[in-house]
Design brief:
- The structure is a single chain.
- By secondary structure, the protein is of the alpha+beta class.
- 52% of the residues lie in helices and 19% in strands.
- It is built from ten helices and ten strands.
- Strands 2-1-5-4-3 form a five-stranded antiparallel sheet, with helices on both faces. A five-stranded mixed sheet has the order 6-7-8-10-9.
Length: 385
């Protein structure tokens, strides 16, 4: 039985609703762009889809495609420039629905490895007067009239609706990333302050001890020798503080190396820099959304900081394992521990408030187990994407 126009329209709106919900689950700009493109291609049953976010130099700051393999994409070469039909969508903010893009007078060709495209539907993504990007689809999977376009007016209306919500999702993602940058800047300021306090105290003690050794070297060489040994110890502790701070201040290479490699590298450095034994193990982890990986990394860093700087731990074990579609991070130490009943007073000092905020911000949970003299275990669970 053939569906009537009302049923088809209802199915289309339902698909748009599903696409909007999918977009709202992501906070990173790149993840939002990928979801928009994949949702648009599925919604309108097209062979190819792409979304370009323009830069200020005639090119694209980001360009996301769906329907093209990674090998094809690499063979195509550099990102396109803002010209031809893409420029029309960005500059004039007008939809473009064409029977054959190759026959349009604005068409300027494409690289040899580029897939062949015929019918075309493009839509600007705009927030008020600001054009955020150009979203387009090509090669609708359907019988096409001779010289005509497979994309219909209804397709154009649905894509326009999706583009409006895409603009909201993209704007929210940008705001999130800016707020995160401010948070990271705040964390770096905190670390810098902490570094200044810790290293300044060590260097002040080192200077006084060196002065004492100088004063004793002639009249009491044995005591002078002891003071010089103290100088060596203080200098090593100051060096440890500096190494650990550099690790925390260095931007995490999540995009290039992934969560497991980034954590492993940082933990190896901490293991070398501190007298405590620091271990790391990961089992069965699947790729997670960028926001979740960022949160897991930051919570691991905070928990490691507590164990190594405040708990006098001799051993810290970090594990990261798959849990359903998500993951569980556990940082356990054998340090002095604390009474969970005092967490209201100790929570902010130990970063527990910020850790819980990070966990809840990505839909996860954080639990802390501790007792005086019994060590501490911080466990964070996050859902999958």
């Amino acid at each position: 039985m053939t569906k009537g126009p009302g049923a088809a329209r209802g199915a289309g709106l339902s698909a748009v609703s599903g696409a909007i919900l999918a977009m709202s689950r992501h906070l990173e700009v790149r993840d939002v762009l990928k979801t928009i493109v994949a949702s648009a291609r599925e919604l309108l049953d097209a062979e190819y889809a792409a979304l370009g976010v323009p830069d200020d130099h005639g090119g694209f700051a980001q360009f996301v495609v769906d329907g093209v393999s990674e090998e094809q994409w690499k063979a195509i070469g550099p990102l396109p420039r803002q010209h031809g039909i893409l420029a029309a969508m960005l500059q004039e903010a007008t939809p473009q629905r064409l029977g054959d893009v190759r026959q349009d007078p604005r068409f300027e060709g494409w690289p040899g490895a580029h897939p062949d495209m015929s019918d075309f539907l493009g839509m600007p993504v705009a927030d008020g007067d600001e054009i955020l990007g150009a979203l387009f689809l090509a090669n609708k999977r359907c019988p096409k009239p001779a010289g005509g376009c497979g994309f219909t007016e209804e397709d154009e209306a649905l894509l326009g609706m999706l583009a409006q919500h895409a603009a909201i999702a993209l704007t929210n993602a940008r705001l999130y990333e800016r707020s995160r940058e401010l948070t990271i800047a705040g964390e770096r300021a905190r670390l810098a302050h902490e570094l200044h306090d810790a290293v300044s105290q060590k260097l002040f003690s080192l200077r006084l001890t060196a002065q004492a050794a100088t004063a004793l070297v002639d009249r009491d060489p044995a005591r002078a020798k002891g003071e010089l040994q103290q100088v060596t110890r203080l200098a090593a502790e100051a060096a440890d503080e500096l190494r650990a701070a550099v690790v925390e201040l260095r931007p995490a290479a999540l995009d290039e190396d992934g969560l497991i490699a980034t954590l492993r590298t940082q933990i190896q450095v901490l293991d070398r820099a501190h007298s405590a034994k620091v271990t790391f193990a990961a089992h069965g982890l699947r790729a997670l959304p960028a926001a979740q990986e960022e949160a897991l990394l930051r919570v691991a860093q905070e928990a490691l900081h507590n164990a190594l700087r405040h708990a006098d731990a001799q051993r810290v074990d970090v594990t990261l394992v798959r849990h359903g579609q998500g993951a569980v991070l556990r940082v356990a130490d054998d340090g002095r521990g604390f009474d969970p009943g005092t967490v209201r007073r100790a929570g902010r000092h130990l970063g527990l408030v910020s850790m819980r905020d990070r966990a809840s911000g990505v839909g996860g949970t954080l639990t802390v187990e501790s007792a005086p003299g019994k060590g501490t275990a911080v466990e964070m669970e996050v859902p999958g994407g």
